Each structure stands twice: as structure tokens, then as C-alpha cells.
Amino acid sequence: MPPSSQQNATFQMRSKFxxxxxxxxxxxxxxxxxxxxxxxxxxxxxxxxxxxPYDRYFIEKRYDVQxxxxxxxAEKEITLLHQVQDHENVTKYVDHYLDRRAQxxxxxxEFCDAGDLEDVLxxxxxxxxxxxxxxxxKWFIGxxxxxxxxHYGPKPNDVSFRKKYxxxxxxxxxxxxxxxxxxxxxxxxxxxxLADFGCSVSGQWTKLNKVLEQASNASAFTxxxxxxxxxxxxxxxxxxxxxxxxxxxxTGTRRPRSKAAPNDEWWDKQHPAGRNYTRELNDVMRWFLxxxxxxxxxSLTALKRLKETYSRLESRLPPxxxxxxxxxxxxxxxxxxxxPPALSSPGPRAGGVPGEIPSRRPGPPIHAFSDPGAEWMxxxxxxxxAFRPGQRTPMSPNSIDQIVQGGGGYP
Length: 411
Fold this sequence. Notes:
- By secondary structure, the chain is an alpha+beta fold.
- It has twelve helices and 13 strands.
- The strands form five sheets. It has a five-stranded antiparallel β-sheet, with helices on one face.
């Protein structure tokens, strides 16, 4: 890259984003959901903007006192959410505040009005019905695309660019309850979105703080969804967790068996999606769930395979129909068909249909920082001054969707 282009790219990478001790807007609490979705939050509330001319809601995620003072939690999650807010398959950051003196902090995000995949999984299990395969493919591709963005940024095929300018993010706690659903009225469909970056870390974050061990301790895999190489983590562990999340939704497996949960539900490693789904879907899931991490694809390779396979298969799959018509009755189900419930809960678990399974997230275990790309970020020391946590590469304005469909953009 010529010097002038390098300077231009560096300039584009700089961001005005800074941690603030007061929110930019005035927020009104509509409903408190309390502390839910696990122990790693100080409370969740449904909120709205004061004097907002549009009929829309947002979610406020509060942090407890310990998280406010811990530089590896509240501040980290806020900056990482800001970095990936441009992608339509990630819950969009809207506002935040972090006041250590007052011991209070919160982040405000878009309201996901169709619940989350945990709601869908519970319905699949109870009603013995399945999600339409076309819908599974669309959600799976969207979430994998979001993972590619987290791992490699807006130019994933440009290795030089992403190494110099992208702050690689590892989610590390992907599960059905952390994939929210939102009705997109413009597209007439339900969109799946990666959420809850509380356990995430990034290569640049560890470089700046120079404490790999502290970054590793920040992770808390949910038993059943931890990868075979646990306690190591890398981009490959995110691929494993995403694939197992969708396999669980396909089969209604509420507690997948793993090394950390050896007595939980067995799942078919040869047919992860189950026999109600096509060979093609089972094949890609089986590849993504390879226990040998060296034979498992990274997110970019996985996304390419998903798109290629779906393009060949799409014409054979029945249409979804109306946005909320995501279920179908398989042959093995009971004969009495029941109408699917309205998906009307907000994104965080508290606002959705209460799940039967309480959060089983353990205390933070020790994890091995195992990704060469992230280790490279640590080794380069001060050679990459153009980027800091919370700064991001702006995407084209045309690709930045409205935070809330139905009126208004960024508040």
C-alpha cells in the first residue's frame, strides 16, 4: 500500500468514540426485567427515549459494581459493541455511560422484538415441531457472516488490511440464548443477531492491556457449548459454538452433552441437524463440529461453504411465507398440530418466554489464549498505533441499517 493510501486508511480508522460518564440521550424505563440471562449483568430493562416521536423501544443492560470497576468487563463490552455495530446481524449499540465514581454503568441496544433462539429451541422441544430449513439456512448464514465481521472486519479477504487495521474479536459465549431475533419489516423476515459480548475479548484489547492471563479469565463458556479444545479458544471455537447452537435448535436439544456436561443430552455427531433436515445441512454442520480443531474451518471458510451449499439447495426448499411462519410439522411429530406462539419478546432472555433451564454459566475458568492472529497483535507492540478498542472501520452508509425498523434511525 502506498504511503498516501496508508495515511488515508489510518485516518479512516480513527473514531470519535470515547467512554462517557453520562448517556447522550434521556432514557425512560418502560419495564424492568431484573437480573436475568445469567449472572453477568446488573439488570436489564426495556426503555424508550424521552419525547421520542417514534413508537420504538430499546434495551438497557446495566452492569453491577464489580463490572463497573473491572476494566476487562463493562468498558470492554461497550467498546467491542461499538466496533461491530455496523453489521446487521449484530445487536446494535445505541448509547452508553460508565461512571466509576457513581459506580454505575449501562449500555443501550436495539430492541429485538422476536425473542431469541432459546425461545425457538424450547418451542421445538415442547411442541415436537421443527424450524423450516430455509429459515435455518438464512439465520445460520447471517450469524456466520457476523462472526466473519467480528474476526476479520469489513474486508475479510484482504489479509494485509485486516492484520493492520482490524481488531479481531472472539465472542466465546455463543449459544441459542445469545442469538436474538428481530422482525425486519422492510425485508419481511426475521433476522438473527449475535448478542451479549460480555465474555468477548479482542487481540488489540489484550495487546494494549498486556495481560493475556486477565483476558483469558474473562471467558465463561456455558457447559454443553464449550468446544472440545476447551480451555483453549480461537476463531475456531466460535465456529463450533455457532454450529452447535443451530444444531440444538434443529433437534430441540436443550442441554447438549459435552466434557463439562457429560450427563446431559446426547446429540448425533454424524447428523447434527437431525434426520428431518437435508444431507447438505448435516454435512456442513458435521464439518463445523469436527472435534479436531485443525480440521475445522475458520469463520470465513465456513461462510463461503454455507453460501455455496445454500445457493445449490435453495430452489428445493419450500418458501417461508409470512415472517413468523418459521415452523413446520415433521413426520415424527404428534398428529395434533398446534399454532406457533407469537414471537414477541425483546432480545434479552428476561423479556422472552421464560426458559425452563436456568443459567448454568459457571464462574470464569482459566482459558488458554490460543489464536496465532491474536498473539501476533500482542507481539507487534507499538507498530499498530492506528487502532484502539472502540475504533472501527466505517462501512458504507448504505450498509448501516436503521436501529429500529418502522421509523427513525440513530437517536
